[in-house]
Amino acid sequence: MELILRNARLAGGDRVNIGVAGGRIVALAPTLAGGGESWDAGGRLVCAGLVETHIHLDKSRIIGRCPPVEGRRLNPVALTAPLKRGFTVEDIYERAEATLCECVKHGTTRMRSQVEIDPGIGLKGFEAIRALAAAYRWAVDLELCVFPQEGLTNYPGTEELIVAALRQGGVRALGGAPRYDTDPAGQIERIFALAREYDTEIDLHLDVGDSAERLDIEQVLALTERYRRGGRVAVGHMAKLSLLPPARLAAMARRLADAGIAVSVLPATDLYLMGRDQDHAVRRGVADANFLAEHGVACALSSNNILNPATPYGDGSLLRIANLQANVLQVSRPAALRELFLMLTEHSARVLNLADYGIAVGNPADLVVIDAETPEQAVAELRSPLAVWKAGRRTVTRRPAELHHPLVVAGEVQDRLA
């Protein structure tokens, strides 16, 4: 074996040694003998690499280019659109690389990045993120979801550019943002048609707004069932679900589960953008991922935007996102905190249809050691990853913080009265 990760504590509590060879897990046992590298996890939590299901690398780190916003109302798409015309492939790559590296340092080894395509930016974002995926294959599996942020039916030339990207290859998913189209239903219909034609996954930005009177998910449910796309459709945001009473939300959750539609909840962005029509008692606008999961929906928690007008903060830490979700939804039960951790790992892998994910013999040796004993502790206390391996190769090392107590000398505490 090339690597043995010793004294690993799995999410279920088992203590094992993990043997790695050829980039894959080859053994899981209480004791393992063999040569090669050995790393002692010391009983800390070890999981498969974290999974970022929904992030916009191409427009991260542009907040410094945006003018200050006056008042409470905010349209991040309108703020970003004029900047896109000045983007270059090199600029996009540099910003995206900086964000990707932060995500990797925080334990992410799989990722789906949304990539905007329209006549204003052309294929520059697509070219940059595709090149980034190739350059960082050693650290992360980065897949692309191309989509029309500023509209499809109302923005001539957009569909032709999206088709050009699909034909070039390297695109796993096709997305949409019907909220910004003059014909939301028409956009959704066209996205489903293109996804069938080019055999891609579907990943839509859906149902963000101040009222739940109209839900685009109804059409998505109907099309998913009509074209038998269950298990290949994901929706991001779904902030309007936070406005539904429990009985209606439960019914919707069951329909999503039955149809095979997964949900990526994006708390940092939705908490920042929702409720801006209110000047007091502001709604939170974050979908209850735990509630959805209890009704069988495959759910993930993800970053969405980092350092741009839609989310002017962020450090690439998915554990921070889970901790934020726990705060906003007032999650405290250990089992519910554990479920949030799974929404960064196993459940997120389900959202992206990753068949080879997890700590099991034969799977890629994508491993993260977290400075915690349990998943719930990792979320509640925001514990950091200490080491990351991608396909058995060490990609990240973080040293635990060390307290230099003045009364501690050579490991012994001095007499305080001396």
Write structural notes for this entry.
- By secondary structure, this protein is α/β, with parallel strands linked by helices.
- It folds into two domains: 83 residues, Urease, subunit C, domain 1; 302 residues, Metal-dependent hydrolases (TIM Barrel), CATH 3.20.20.140.
- The chain contains 13 helices and 18 strands.
- Strands 6-7-8-9-10-11-12-13 form an eight-stranded parallel sheet. A four-stranded mixed sheet has the order 3-2-1-4, with no helix packed on it. Strands 5-14-15-16 form a four-stranded antiparallel sheet, with no helix packed on it.
- α2 packs across α3.
- The termini are far apart.
- The mean pLDDT is 95.
Which features would summarize this protein structure in a list?
418 residues, alpha/beta, TIM Barrel, 2 domains, 8-stranded parallel beta sheet, 13 helices, 32% helix, globular
**Shape verdict:** globular
Radius of gyration: 22 Å
Instruction: Provide the domain count.
Output: 2
- The fraction of residues in strands falls at 15-25%
Write the layout of secondary structure elements.
Layout lengths: L2 E7 L5 E7 L2 E6 L7 E4 L4 E4 L1 E6 L20 H9 L4 H17 L2 E9 L7 H12 L5 E7 L10 H11 L2 E6 L7 H15 L2 E6 L10 H10 L6 E5 L8 H14 L1 E5 L1 H7 L15 H6 L4 E3 L16 H11 L5 H9 L3 H6 L15 E4 L4 H6 L4 E6 L2 E5 L10 E2 L2 E2 L5
Parallel strand pairs: 1-4, 6-7, 7-8, 8-9, 9-10, 10-11, 11-12, 12-13
Antiparallel strand pairs: 1-2, 2-3, 5-14, 14-15, 15-16, 17-18
Helix pairs in contact: 2-3, 5-6
